[in-house]
């Protein structure tokens, strides 16, 4: 994104103060956008009590964006995949502009702040519809925006067994965060475009399951299942079904037997102790990209990508270990490693999870990637094709990516979950994700901030911990 310097930024700051922006930092309120390609969050700005969305943040995950200030005008060129550039033009402090060359009137004035352009939340769906040529629906109170026919509905099926079971069915795998409390299970969907499939409150006359409530707010959807006793939720059918039933009663605490007396030693005829075979172990392998002569992107003239991601990798390793999860670094110094070497060494290590780390000097926030590969019916235990080894682990990789994204969301970090044809990730025979960090709020120097990197590292570690039970342990 190119923005002219000097007077343009000063002019933008003056217009911002005139517009009455009440210094609510981006990230305190968010819009969640769902599209056929990806879902992502956009931080909202409070202007005189009205939410505004940044045009760059809104459009960047959907195509190529170039924005600049030209005199008194803010001009943005948006190029959808496979399309031609389309222009959006507004002026700070004015409510009239152009979208695709046609006049467009905003319900409130356009806002410029720190060289970035913001429009009222209420017009985001119409602007996207005009640029993409597809329908977009905004749920303004919930701050959720749906592009195209992406809404996913759920089904409810109560089986009155002993105990009763409530089956929640979805058309594709889901990965909600699950919270339990006495007599309640709450499923929170941050990435899936779940909408109500009928009445938002469904009561049951059942001895265990008393009802289900759907709600959407703060850029997410929730299903709240209530009951007359403790409940638990389990995944089935590859994540397409969630079964809610009664939680088992806690087992009685057994009295610990006193330790047996050791057998007397026989120094004259010691018997060798058999070596115990190594059991399964859970290891996360972290791969800081680049290294050596391969510096990666020049984040600033004096800060290469290879240094940013190595610092981040060490933080992620420490935070995982603090959570009781073994973690190793594929590169712990400034050395060059080829893509093939990264894949070979990773597969030889046999980790439970592989995480590649990257950094960028453009965009904002954190991107979480999984491999762009077609689904394949491959057995993780068999021989896997080198170029598409990751295809056997896509479901698990997606679960990890969704969990990390949910943790980023909970820390109010702008983020998006995307697919990409990345190497060596396609060659990794284990669940694998890639995480790319960009400046948190447009200031490129902040990418090396200890506070920012620690937030990202904690999100990654917490996301991995949340889905650890889904990832199989492996033998060394």
Structural features, described:
It is a single chain. The chain is built from seven helices and 29 strands. By secondary structure, it is α+β, with helices and mostly antiparallel strands. The protein folds into three domains: 7-147, no CATH class; 154-246, Immunoglobulin-like (Sandwich); 283-470, 3-Layer(aba) Sandwich (Aminopeptidase). The strands form five sheets. Strands 1, 2, 3, 9, 10, 11, 12, 22, 25, 26, 27, 28 and 29 form a 13-stranded mixed beta sheet that branches. Strands 4-5-6-7-8 form a five-stranded antiparallel beta sheet. A hairpin with a 2-residue loop joins strand 23 (298-300) and strand 24. Helix 4 (305-322) crosses helix 7 (450-466) and helix 6 (394-410) crosses helix 7 (450-466). The longest helix has 18 residues, at 305-322. It is globular. 41% of the residues are buried.
């Amino acid at each position: 994104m190119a923005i002219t310097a000097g007077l343009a930024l000063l002019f933008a700051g003056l217009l911002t103060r005139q517009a009455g922006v009440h210094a609510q930092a981006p990230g305190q309120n968010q819009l969640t956008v769902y599209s056929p390609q990806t879902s992502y969050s956009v931080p909202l700005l409070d202007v005189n009590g009205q939410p505004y969305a940044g045009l760059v943040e809104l459009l960047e995950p959907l195509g190529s964006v170039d924005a600049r200030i030209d005199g008194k005008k803010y001009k943005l060129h948006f190029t959808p995949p496979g399309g031609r550039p389309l222009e959006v033009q507004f002026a700070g402090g004015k409510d009239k502009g152009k979208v695709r060359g046609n006049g467009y009137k905003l319900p409130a004035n356009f806002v410029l702040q720190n060289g970035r352009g913001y429009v009222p939340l209420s017009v985001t769906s119409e602007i996207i519809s005009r640029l993409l040529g597809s329908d977009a629906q905004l749920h303004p109170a919930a701050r959720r925006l749906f592009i195209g026919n992406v809404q996913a509905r759920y089904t409810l099926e109560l089986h009155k067994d002993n105990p009763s079971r409530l089956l929640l069915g979805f058309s594709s795998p889901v990965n909600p965060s699950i919270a339990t409390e006495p007599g309640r299970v709450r499923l929170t969907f941050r990435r899936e475009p779940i909408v109500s499939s009928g009445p938002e409150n469904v009561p049951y006359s059942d001895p265990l399951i008393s009802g289900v409530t759907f709600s959407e707010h703060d850029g997410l959807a929730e299903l709240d299942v209530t009951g007359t006793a403790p409940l638990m939720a389990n995944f089935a059918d590859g994540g397409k079904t969630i079964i809610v039933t009664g939680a088992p009663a806690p087992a009685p605490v057994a009295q610990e037997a006193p330790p047996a007396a050791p057998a007397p030693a026989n120094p004259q005829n010691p018997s060798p102790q058999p070596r115990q075979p190594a059991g399964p172990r859970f290891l996360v392998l972290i791969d800081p990209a680049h290294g050596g002569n391969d510096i990666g992107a020049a984040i600033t003239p004096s800060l290469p990508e290879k240094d940013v991601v190595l610092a981040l990798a060490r933080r992620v390793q420490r935070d995982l270990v603090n959570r009781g999860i073994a973690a190793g670094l594929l590169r712990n110094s400034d050395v060059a490693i080829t893509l093939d070497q990264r894949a070979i060494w990773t597969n030889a290590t046999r980790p439970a999870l592989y995480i590649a780390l990257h950094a960028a000097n453009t965009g904002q926030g954190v991107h979480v990637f999984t491999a762009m590969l077609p689904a394949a019916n491959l057995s993780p235990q068999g021989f896997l094709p080198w170029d598409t080894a990751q295809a056997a682990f896509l479901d698990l990789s997606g679960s990890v990516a969704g969990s990390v994204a949910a943790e980023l969301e909970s820390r109010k970090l702008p983020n998006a979950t995307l697919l990409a044809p990345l190497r060596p990730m396609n060659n990794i025979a284990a669940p694998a994700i890639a995480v790319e960090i960009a400046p948190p709020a447009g200031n490129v120097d902040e990418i090396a901030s200890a506070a920012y990197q620690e937030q990202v590292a904690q999100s990654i570690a917490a996301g991995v911990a949340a889905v650890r039970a889904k990832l199989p342990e492996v033998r060394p």
